[in-house]
Amino acid sequence: MTRSFSHQFEGRIWKMDIHEETGLLGIEWRTEEGVPHFSVIHYPDGNLLLADFSYGDRWWTLAGITAESLLLQHFPQPNQAHTRGLVAIDILQQKIRWERFDLQFVEVVQEGIAVQPGYLEPHQVMVFTDQDNKPLFQTISLDQLTPLSRGIQSAQPTDAVPATMLSENPVVGPYFYLPHQGKELWAYHEADGPSFKLMLAILENGRIVYQDCLADKLSYLLPEVFFTIGQQLFFIRNNKQEIVSYFV
C-alpha cells in the first residue's frame, strides 16, 4: 500500500461527496466558529482543484458534486430539515456559475441535477444541466431518472475476529472489517499507555501483506475508521482536519 496524497484543512471536515465518473471529491470543512468552506480534490492524483471557497452564512452546506460544479444548499430555518436555495460553483473557474433561491435540491443523477420547486408534487422533479439553471425536464418522476454510481465502501465494526493474529498488544473495542478486491481490510485500536493507536492490517489468503499505524496518541476510539473508493483507501485524521489517501 502506498500513500496517494494528504491534504490538511484549517477546520474540521464536515461533509463529503464524490462524483465517481470524474474522480472528484467535494469536501465541506468548518472553522471553530462554524463558518463553512468548500474544497474539491481530484482524488486519483490528489490535485486540489478548489482550495478554500466560502459562500454565504453558516446555514449553507454541501449538497452534491457534478462533473463540473460543486453544489451548495441552504437551510432557511435551521430547526427544520428542508432546504431552499441551490448554488452551483464552477470548480475549475472557482466562481459562482448560477444561483437559484426558489429550489430544493433532491440529488445528482445521470441526467443532471434533480430539484424540486415548491409547486410540484413530492415525487416530481425538474432536472437542470450543469452549465445553467434552465431545466432539461420541466416535470418528471424521480423514478424515471438514473442514479449515479456510488462506489464508496466503509469499514464496519464486527463481532468477528481475523483468522490471523494481528497484534500482540491489547485490542480495545471492536475490529472493523471490509472485504476489498480479494483482500481483507482490518482496522483496530490498540492500547498505547493512556492513549490509543488505530492500526490497519491487510490480509490476502490468510497472510498479512501490509500493516501500519494510521493514527496514534488518540484520546478516544474512532467510530469511523476508513472508507474505500475503487483502488483507494481514505482516512480522516488529526481531529478531522486532514484527509489521507492510499492506493490499496
**What structural class do helix, strand and pairing data support?**
mainly beta
How are the strands of the largest sheet arranged? 1-22-21-20-14
Shape: elongated
Our estimate of the beta-strand percent is over 45%
Remind me, CATH topology of the largest domain?
Methylamine Dehydrogenase, Chain H
Total domain units: 2
**Number of DSSP-assigned strands:** 22
Brief sketch in words of this structure:
With 248 residues, the protein is mainly β.
Notes on the protein architecture:
The protein is mostly beta strands and 248 residues long. The chain folds into two domains: 2-144, YVTN repeat-like/Quinoprotein amine dehydrogenase (Methylamine Dehydrogenase, Chain H); 156-225, no CATH class. 0% of the residues lie in helices and 59% in strands. The chain is built from no helices and 22 strands. The chain has strands at residues 2-8, 12-19, 24-30, 36-42, 47-53, 60-65, 69-74, 86-90, 95-100, 103-109, 112-117, 124-128, 135-141, 152-154, 156-158, 171-180, 183-192, 195-204, 207-218, 227-229, 232-237, 242-247. The strands form five sheets. Strands 1-22-21-20-14 form a five-stranded antiparallel beta sheet, with no helix packed on it. It has a five-stranded antiparallel beta sheet with strand order 15-16-17-18-19, with no helix packed on it. It is elongated, with a radius of gyration of 20 Å. 27% of the residues are buried.
